[in-house]
Structure formats: C-alpha cells, structure tokens
Amino acid sequence: AAQYPGFKGAIEAQKASAKELFDAAAGLDGDAKIEKLSAANSALMAGFVGDLDRVEEKMKKLRESKAVAAAKAGDTSSLIGAKVAADDAEKTIERVEKFLKEGAADAAAAKALTKKALDDLDAAQKAIDAVVAADKEKKDAAQAEKDAAKAEQEADKAQAQADKEAEAAKVAPWKCAYCDAENPHDATSCNSCGAARQADDAKKDEAKK
Fold first, then answer.
1. pLDDT tens, 99-153?
2. CA nearest 55: which of 129, 47, 108, 8?
3. Would you list the domain boundaries of the chain?
C-alpha cells in the first residue's frame, strides 16, 4: 500500500480478506496449515495486486528495450524507427505511471486500470520488438549478401588458378618413354633418341610427377 498510495483502500480490503485465511491457518498443523497459508498468499496476491507487480516488470523491460533498440540500430531508417517507437514507449510509461499514482478506489476499478496498463505496455513492447527484429533482418540480409559475394570471389579465384594450371600443363615439356629425355611440348618425336611421341607419353609423364 505504501508503494501505491492510490490503491491503498483496495489493497487494504484484499489484505483483510486474506487475513481471515491467515488467521484460520494459525489453528492448523501440518499439511492443512500449509494449504491454508498457500491459499492466503494466493488471495493476497490475486487480481490487481499481482498485476501491479507485472506492470512494474513490464515498465522495466520496456525501458531497457528502448535503449537496446537505439543502440543496435544499423542504419538511419532503423534509428528513426527506434526513436519513434521509443518516444511512444516513453509516453506509455508516463501514462501508466500516472495511472498508478492516481490509483483506484476498489478492487474492480483497480483490476480494470491494471489491465489497461498491461495492455498498453504490451503494445509498446511489441512495437519496440518489431523495430529490433526488422533491423536484425536487414543486418542478416546484408551479411548474407556479403558472404555470397565473398564466396563468389573465392570461387572465381579458384577457377582462375585452375585455368592457369591447365594452361601451364598444355605447354609443359614431355618426357620420352624410351630415354626419359625432356622435349618441347609441341615436339612430335624425341630430340634425343628420335623416338616418336607415344600417345601415352603424357600419361606416363604425369605419373612420374
């Protein structure tokens, strides 16, 4: 009640209802007492009281998400989107804080107010999350494009090397199958022993490499 003075009346009424269960638990033992205390705690935190805790948690998360969205923005459009969503989120937080300060007279009004606060915070969080997700999608697409370009560059480089090696093989000297002498690539017979180049000389030459 001290944290939410505007809800004091509604909270005190809920405490009174829970107190009856706590008092009843005092006269019990064992499992019966545990069950009654559990029921008392549930009654105390039921409805809008539990919602108040969730409102605080959601406001904290929303504040953190605002900062993350701005910090992670990868380009101008993402930064603008993050700023718009952050401004809307801040307005939502201010509106919810006003709700909490004003409070509600009874449990029914308090429940309606906290539900409205939770719905507004969820909508603001969804908008922030959408901005972050869209920015991540753009970054992932840019990285994929960069990776594809790099892969293509490496493939072209490998092909160029293969072409170079193939071209070099065309002009490489061949060895005579009979005397093992090297001859120019375009010679049809051995310059050393005069033997005609055999069809499999090139294969034999490759096998010796």
1. 999 899 888 999 999 999 999 999 999 999 999 999 999 999 999 999 999 999 9
2. 47
3. 47-164, 171-208
